[in-house]
Structures are given as C-alpha cells and as structure tokens.
Write a structure and sequence with these properties.
Number of helices: 7
Distance between the termini: 25 Å
Helix content: 55-70%
Radius of gyration: 27 Å
Order of helices and strands: EEHHHHHHH
C-alpha cells in the first residue's frame, strides 16, 4: 500500500521502508535544518556526473572568455578608429560613445558575475548603487566590503523553502503516518 511520509509519496514495496526503521525520518531531519550547498551536493555525485558537469562548465567558461575578449577587442578597435578621425568631429564623438558603451557593457557583465559570487540579492539595484555611489574604481574593481557596510540589505540571502508539504500553511504535517483521514481530523480539530 502506498502512502505519504513527510509530504512525499512513497511505496513500502519499492524499498522506501514502512517508516518503522526511522531512516527516512532521520535523513529528512538532517536536511530540514541545512541549506543545500553546491560543494556538498556536487561532491556527493558519482565521478562520471562530476566530470560531465566539469566538462560542460569548462565549455561555458570558454565561451564567456571568448565573448569578453571580443568585447575588449571591439572597444580597443573603436578607440583606435576614433584616434584616426579628425579631433572634435561628430564622427569621432560617435565612435568614442560606442567605445564607452562597449566598456560599460563589459563592466556591467563583470560586476554581475562578481556580485553573484559575493551573494548580492538584487544585482540590478547593486549595480546602480555601485555606479552612482562610487564603489567601482577606475580599474573596474568593486568595493563589495564598503557596499555591504553601507547597504547590508543588498547582501541578504534569499529564503528558500524546504519544499515540504504544509509550507505556506504556517506549519508542518503531523508526524507519523499521514493519510487523508488524519488530515481531515487535524483540520476539524480532533
């Protein structure tokens, strides 16, 4: 017979256990208080899965590096063209504006990557604060420590619910065996 256990469907016939051993409850209890972390989750994967993820991640990093190099080259080429144009001409101004826009786009992309690693909760707002309040120096280095000191609300971790049934109702399901009758009785106050 199938049933519910801590809000998850299980079948004792499939090796999930009948709840008498308590293994599932202990495992659930361990995971309830802990936040899922990449390193622990990734480390628990089989080696073949870890290699597959590393290969995919490597190709993404390669594509990102290629894109960054292309942006940098485009900005450099635009500035070279602007230097060859007549000083103060409209054409030179437009080319320099394009080069500045390319530099700003690169700076924004780099900021978003660094901000994500610094646990910023609102990337767009953090970028606006960093540019208007002077947290980015001339070399493009961001002072996240200063931002965190002045604007700690930008670094708040988001709440991620554990996904158990009963979330949103303000409570958990009653312990033990859960079936429709016990749920109805609990709602009725019996």
């Amino acid at each position: 017979m199938s049933g519910f256990k801590k809000g998850l469907f299980y079948s004792p016939d499939d090796g999930a256990g009948d709840g008498a051993s308590g293994e599932g409850e202990q495992e659930q209890g361990k995971q309830e208080g802990e936040a899922l972390q990449w390193d622990t989750w990734h480390g628990a994967l089989p080696e073949a899965a870890q290699n597959l993820i590393a290969e995919h991640e490597g190709s993404l990093k390669s594509a990102l590096k290629t894109e960054r190099d292309a942006r940098s080259d485009a900005e450099k080429n635009l500035r070279e063209v602007a230097a060859e144009l007549e000083a103060g001409s409209d054409a030179q101004k437009k080319v320099l504006e394009l080069a500045d826009a390319e530099a700003a786009a690169s700076q924004k992309a780099e900021f978003y990557e660094e901000a994500h690693n610094a646990s910023v909760s609102n990337l767009k707002l953090a970028y606006h604060v960093a540019t208007t309040e002077g947290f980015i120096d001339k070399r493009g280095k961001v002072d996240f420590a200063g931002m965190k000191e002045q604007y700690p609300e930008l670094f708040v971790k988001k709440f991620i619910p554990d996904g158990g049934a009963g979330e949103g109702t303000g409570g958990k399901l009653p312990g033990g065996k859960v079936d429709m009758n016990s749920l109805i009785r609990a709602k009725a106050g019996r």
